[in-house]
């Protein structure tokens, strides 16, 4: 009940603000859309609670809905902050207040897409999780066995295989999941309508009949705000206009923090022959998880561009991980926060790839973070440094020319640790442009996931450096997780750094998997991780990568790729839940028939062995563990496995059978002889004496 009260309070605060909607001058349509979405979300969730749960059981039996409602409350508070930010510029537009401050606020928020891509994305995801949590609580509500059986039958029909269709889902559940046609159309049009309304407002302000005529400098600012994103303006508008521009400090590389019109901005200096192309790339994208250009200026005398970025971020991800790490915590973040960071990075990369932009330099120094206002551990993430790719040099330090808040990716670590093996092969052959490919970015993302989950830079414990590290990566060496991390995330990470680029998932698939992983963690708060003595987290009831593979075959729209529309997120969550229930039912049926059956296959398992990679990494028979890393054994031209030669010239002993060669011998579990069946508990072999290693 307390969570429902807090939700009502947050919606009431937003409605109180929107009572003065006529005073809004910046993003009025988006603010109204956000207010309506919050109100509809509250009505949908409370309606489900009222219909399916019993008020007198609001104690223990309502507990499954508490964590999802807290996430929804967090999304409401973020939405309220956005509305307040837009309201902050209301008075000066009519001639009162601090005019310079209004111009700065308008410049900061007028081009952004946060309303739909960030806030509505969070609200729709939270509603889908909250509805499922209510359904889970309803399955145990009451004491009437017949009533419980009826509710379970209704749920089974709701998630029937034939209902996994976007059109049917919208027709049957559009009002509950906030994906009605009317709301979807508003999501698509709100930003465009606000841009048109702003241009009309600026024309009125420039009119001679305005209450306070604009100065010449203010007219030039009005032209900047009304211009489409990417248009280049004279630098004099920025440097000597009415905005009182001043540089406050250097942020590293080509970035500076500047004060302009009362607001703090990140300003990027670009010069040289490639500057014009870089500006065009920065201005061609707009997403809350991508550091993009808001306004562009050119200094003709100095032959350089000054790009005002969309938001000032605090620091880069590598610096932030080192800052929050401490000896008392095994990992730098709670598991749900780490997954949220991974999801934001994946969403930013999904947007870039949908616009045919491939990063080529994805590493922690090119991921910028900013703690959220609520001080709950969550951060806002932006992918940066994609406007140009550097030159890959084995053993070289990460270059600062990407212009982010921190010049070094890993405090002296080799640059090559973030590059895919096929990239290192081509660069060694004299093709530095090979860094920019879709699958190479996915590999780099997998390495970032490793650092997020462990707090360790990949290969930081390896004694090899420079060109030897590059050779070992090309030979199949990968970081070894230093403790028992969640297997479903370990296997997803290993799929991303798979030696075969064709086996790496697209970022659209990664986003869908991570959304559902985050849902699993929110609905199971006891699975959170962070303390050194925390118990090993349990695995989800189904294989999410296998679910994704099945849905890719069922839903043709997912096969076409492209960035996911926010309005499609609830259906994706629904489809995952439907297939998950289908797999759980099939597993329970198979388990009842023959619990000892070995007919299943781990195939694409996300929940496979921690030190293995299921179908997403090389076979167990073709990998070794050495020096804290996992090495895949490449195939020769005749199809046989060839021995892996380390960069130091030593060849590991030849393996026999499918058992891994391990250093030390007690550090890795022996492989099981049978294969798992999805949904069936495998036979447990006799336990061997433990050696104290994390793998035990």
From TrEMBL:
InterPro entries assigned to the protein according to its UniProt record, in alphabetical order:
DUF1221 (IPR010632), Kinase-like_dom_sf (IPR011009), Prot_kinase_dom (IPR000719), Ser-Thr/Tyr_kinase_cat_dom (IPR001245), Ser/Thr_Kinases-Pseudokinases (IPR051681)
Pfam assignment, any one: PK_Tyr_Ser-Thr
Give the signal peptide as a residue range, or say none if absent: none
Tell me the ranges covered by the Protein kinase domain, including all copies: 234-521
Q: Which domain of life is it from?
A: Eukaryota
**Gene3D superfamilies xrefs:** Transferase(Phosphotransferase) domain 1
Skewed-composition ranges (Polar residues): 619-629
Compositional bias (Basic and acidic residues) at which positions? 632-651
Q: Where do the record's region annotations for Disordered lie?
A: 587-696
UniProt name for this protein: Protein kinase domain-containing protein
């Amino acid at each position: 009940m307390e969570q429902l009260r807090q939700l009502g309070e947050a919606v009431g605060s937003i409605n109180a603000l929107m009572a003065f909607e006529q005073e809004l001058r910046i993003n009025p349509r988006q603010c109204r859309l956000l207010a309506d979405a919050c109100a509809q979300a509250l009505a949908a969730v409370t309606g489900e609670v009222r219909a399916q749960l019993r008020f007198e059981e609001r104690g223990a039996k309502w507990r499954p809905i508490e964590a999802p409602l807290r996430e929804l409350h967090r999304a409401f508070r973020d939405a309220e902050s956005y509305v307040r930010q837009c309201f902050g510029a209301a008075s000066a537009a009519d001639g009162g207040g601090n005019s310079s401050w209004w111009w700065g606020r308008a410049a900061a928020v007028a081009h952004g897409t946060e309303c739909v891509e960030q806030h509505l994305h969070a609200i729709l995801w939270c509603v889908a999780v909250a509805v499922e949590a209510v359904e889970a609580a309803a399955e145990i509500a009451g004491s009437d066995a017949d009533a419980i059986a009826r509710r379970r039958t209704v749920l089974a029909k709701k998630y029937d295989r034939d209902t996994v269709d976007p059109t049917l889902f919208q027709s049957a559940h559009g009002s509950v999941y906030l994906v009605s046609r009317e709301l979807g159309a508003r999501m698509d049009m709100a930003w465009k309508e606000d841009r048109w309304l702003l241009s009309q407002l600026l024309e009125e302000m420039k009119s001679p009949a305005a209450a306070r005529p604009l100065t010449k400098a203010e007219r030039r600012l009005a032209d900047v705000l009304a211009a489409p994103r990417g248009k280049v303006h004279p630098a004099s508008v920025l440097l000597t206009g009415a905005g009182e521009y001043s540089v406050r400090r250097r942020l590293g590389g080509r970035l500076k923090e500047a004060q302009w019109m009362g607001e703090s901005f990140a300003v990027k200096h670009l010069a040289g022959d490639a500057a014009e192309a870089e500006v065009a790339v920065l201005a061609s994208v707009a997403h809350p998880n991508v550091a993009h250009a808001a306004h562009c200026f050119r200094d003709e005398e100095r032959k350089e561009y000054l790009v005002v970025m969309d938001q000032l971020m605090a620091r880069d991800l590598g610096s932030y991980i080192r800052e929050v790490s401490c000896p008392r915590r095994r990992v730098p973040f709670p598991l749900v926060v780490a997954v949220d960071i991974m999801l934001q990075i994946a969403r930013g990369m999904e947007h870039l790839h949908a616009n045919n932009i491939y990063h080529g330099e994805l590493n922690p120094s090119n991921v910028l973070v900013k703690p959220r206002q609520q001080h709950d551990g969550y951060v806002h993430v932006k992918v940066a440094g994609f406007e140009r790719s550097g030159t890959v040099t084995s053993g070289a330090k990460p270059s600062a020319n990407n212009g982010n808040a921190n010049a070094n990716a890993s405090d002296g670590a080799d640059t090559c640790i973030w590059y895919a093996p096929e990239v290192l092969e081509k660069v060694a052959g004299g093709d530095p442009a090979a860094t920019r490919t879709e699958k190479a970015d996915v590999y780099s993302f997998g390495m970032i996931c490793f650092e997020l989950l462990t707090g360790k830079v990949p290969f930081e414990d390896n004694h090899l450096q420079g060109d030897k590290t590059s050779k070992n990566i090309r030979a199949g060496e990968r970081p070894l997780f230093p403790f028992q991390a969640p297997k479903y995330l370990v296997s997803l990470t290993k799929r991303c750094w798979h030696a075969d680029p064709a086996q790496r998932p697209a970022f659209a698939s990664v986003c869908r998997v991570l959304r559902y992983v985050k849902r699993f963690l929110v609905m199971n708060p006891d699975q959170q991780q962070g303390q050194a003595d925390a118990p090993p987290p349990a695995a989800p009831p189904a294989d999410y990568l296998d679910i994704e593979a099945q849905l890719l075959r069922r839903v043709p729209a997912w096969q076409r790729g492209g960035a996911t529309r926010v309005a499609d997120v609830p259906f994706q969550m629904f489809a995952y839940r439907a297939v998950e229930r289908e797999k759980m039912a099939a597993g329970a049926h198979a388990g009842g028939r023959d619990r000892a059956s070995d007919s299943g296959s781990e195939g694409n398992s996300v929940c496979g062995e921690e030190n293995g990679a299921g179908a997403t990494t090389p076979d167990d028979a073709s990998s070794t563990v050495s020096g804290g890393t996992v090495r895949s054994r490449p195939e020769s031209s005749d199809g046989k496995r060839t021995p892996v030669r380390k960069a130091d010239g030593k060849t590991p002993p030849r393996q026999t059978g499918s058992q891994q060669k391990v250093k030390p011998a007690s550090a890795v579990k022996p492989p099981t002889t049978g294969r798992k069946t999805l949904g069936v508990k495998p036979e447990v072999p006799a336990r061997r004496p433990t050696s104290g290693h994390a793998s035990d």
